[in-house]
Amino acid sequence: MSEQNTNAVTPAEPAAHVVLEEQIDQWRGYVQRRRAITPADVDEMEDHLRGQVADLTASGLEDDEAFLVAVKRMGNLDEVSREFAREHSGRLWKQLVLVPEEPGETGRWRELGVVLALAIGAGIAVKILLAATGDDELVLVRNGVFAVLPFLAGYFVWKRRVPWGVSAVLLAVTAALALVVNLYPFVEGPFGDPGMTGFLAISHTPVVLWLLLGVVYAGGAWRSGPRRMDFVRFTGELIIYLALIALGGGLLIGLTFGTLGLVGVDFEPFLGDWLLPFALPGALLVGAWLVEAKKNVVENIAPVLTRVFTPLTIVMLAALFVALLVNGPLTAVDRELLILMDAILVLVLFLLLYSISARDPLAPAGVFDWLQLVLVGAALAVDAVALTAMLTRIAEFGFTANKVAALGLNLVLLVHLAWAAWLNLGFVRGRRTFGAIERWQTQYLPVYGLWVATVVIAFGPIFAFA
Amino acid sequence: MHIDKDLVAASATPLVLGILADGESYGYAILKRVNDLSGGRMEWTDGMLYPLLHRLERLGYVQASWGTSDVGRRRKHYAITPTGREALAERRQQWAVVSDALKQVWQDVQPGPAVAEGWA
Prior knowledge:
By secondary structure, chain A is mostly helical. Helices cover 77% and strands 0% of the residues of chain A.
């Protein structure tokens, strides 16, 4: 194949082809409006179109005739773009509706209406819970998530038209969990604070429910890898939205507080009794709605954050590694260290997941992929140091529910990251496709659900509800 | 002759891989080759070739690289990978079985049109 390198990207066209150039430009603009087709794809298709036009004109057709024939052979652009979207499901995140089907204004308002109604419903549920529990904060904390998340699930059931069978099963599982958390005879501490297993159940229940929400989010198709990745994206963007909403809300409340304080009105009773019970679930639902409606507005935030924080986290991990080795042997370690290590691994996992979720799977391995490999490697090294210290301690003093929970999570995370690092190594060395890394992330997600459910359901009986 | 859409779709992957097994190529050239091979009887929707090529790339069957055409325009080239050759060999065996079975069926219905009318 002769490849002649000319400096100019577009060689000078004879004046006669001006009309053709205009037509091709128009065609480009028309194709580019489809978000499933990237500019690079349009380049590729344009090369095809020009090749076809050149061959047709060589066989005697006029420019415009050749152009029409070539465009016609390219096929129905709706179908082609749907095919592109099906292939590049990451781009599909930008528009779950594949064909450019502009949602009517009425549709959008109706959706907002549904969201607001559900938010108010969740607020009322929280109010009822508050009234029913009285002063028992433990019961409130235990059940808050059960009062709010079903409404968020309801939004997705409505939006994705989830089959009734699936919804019924999920509802039954949720109810069973609520029974477990409330009816298990957890031992309470001296001041009404939860015991170890009770605390573990309370802190792990939201994660179980969130993963169940993932099933609804995927419209019941929870086995599908791309849908799982969509849910990961959704979770990340929702966290960002909630942080922004919390910032704005906090500012408003602070200003109101200050101003009303000056004129001697006590804002606190209203804040605690009415504003927060409705504002907190409301923020969650509105945040979810915003993520759904504005997918492509902030879609870049999570990946940008991962790019910023990946190098910084590597520096932090290197410092930790040195500090742990220099100040060792680690004799005074306790479960706090283990919990901190879990938190660090979760952070690294998030950095990994969000850059993967936003990466173009076809792009070749670059510097950032190496950086990520270093990141995961550093995290594993730090964890290995902490874990050896921890295991000797446990061998000496025996297991408690907390230690087992922290240790188990650590192992689950370790397996996830170690295998991801192995796949990543294969990818940067050109032995594997990026698809393998992506598939591993989504395939492994249910393991977290199983582990967390085990902590909630089995730890109480195993550790005598201590 | 019009060839059924499903048949075109099913044969697309082995065709593209087979053409690339002959050497690196790009979209329009692949399509022209398909036309030549079928005597212009297999009608592909040109645009559909690209999602297919991208799928093969994601599966690791082909590797893409950007180059320039003889007039200096950006052009994406595709080359088959060792995994792609394995996939091609496997497809080839599958197709051999199918075409073998079909050949026997064709022999059994020798008389052709007359029988077909009888069934109609």
